[in-house]
Amino acid sequence: MISRFLILILFLMPFVLNGQNVQPIDKDGLVELLESKNKTTYVVNFWATWCAPCVSEIGYFESLHNVYGNKDVHVKLVNLDFPNQLESRVIPFIKENKITAEVLQMTDLDYNSWISEVDANWSGAIPATLIFKGNEKIFFEGELTREQLFENVNKIRNL
Amino acid sequence: MKKLMFTALIAFAASMVTNAQLEPGDKAVDFKLPNVDGKMVALSDYAEEKGVILIFTCNPCPFSKAYEQRIIKMHNRFSTIGYPVVAINPNDISLSPDDTMEKMKERASEKEYPFVYLKDNSEVFKAYGATRTPHVFLLKNNGSGDYTVAFIGAIDNNAMDEKAVSEKYVEQAIISLEQGVKVDPEEVKAVGCTIKTRG
User: Does residue B1 sit within a domain?
Assistant: First the structure.
């Protein structure tokens, strides 16, 4: 009995120590997230490890997460690397860059089925960022500066 | 007041993302660009074809790489019935050094591209409203080089795994053109690499 418990602990250790795991998200999960109508401001960023402008702005999202600590602003980093690159690219990237904000990996590759759910104006190019609270939303296609990100999050948050 | 501020905000956001894109049915924009073989290639050179599969693509983008073999196959299959591929590399080389003409030549020769691979040195991508790589514009020749846009979007619905594809958008569009029926869908979206531009 005890040994089983020990094995379980040993098995779970890497996950606990890692402090970050990547949850999969599909179209339904994304739609559900986009329909979260409450007092929280959601900041949903679409990114990939191979996307240079995404990588250069990702630190701003991490600071946003550190500033608000999920209190009234939730940062969701939706990763668009291919699902078969989770272990080889995404997780090492998260560790290396010490990302503690929530990372989700999109598993639905039928992009056309969900891109317009995020915003009608989104062409699919990344990075792309959606900031929303209740029915108020603001969408950006392209790289944001730190100032743009914080300013717009505050605008939505204060509405 | 808040409402007004928000409207202004939306307008600002919209101005950032709006890119005048050609719509299906619009007249195609002519271009004349250098090919990897050193010659100039213009849309008007294709006056005798039934259509052109115009693809904005580049060297380093993982999505472009994932589709590279499919683009080659598409050209080999459809150029025989009058729909050749014309690939245009739109990236600014000062922002994307892997997309210089030299690097394009290397890639085209290494992968034995059977289609032309042109360097966009006059912002043709903006005239089309392309935003990402790969971004496909299927052009239809209405006679003597009078080209209109028949389809805009992606090659198919699974970039990662060709075997898992269930919708071959470009192929379906060409078949519809050949059968003289409406192209449906005329437009699809896909994730891709942002075209690297200085604005």
Answer: no
Q: What is the pLDDT of residues B111-122, one digit of tens each?
A: 999 999 999 999
Within its chain, how far is the Cα of A143 from the centroid?
15
B174 min Cα distance to partner chain A (Å): 19
pTM comes to 0.87
CATH code for residues A20-157: 3.40.30.10
The predicted-structure confidence for A20-78, as pLDDT tens digits, reads as follows 689 999 999 999 999 999 999 999 999 999 999 999 999 999 999 999 988 899 999 99
The domain locations on chain A are 20-157
Burial B61-81 (b: 16+ CB within 10 A, else e): bbbbbbbbebbbebbeebbee
For chain A, say whether B165 makes contact (Cβ under 8 Å).
no
- Give the one of B132, B164, B189 whose C-beta lies nearest to A112's C-beta: B189
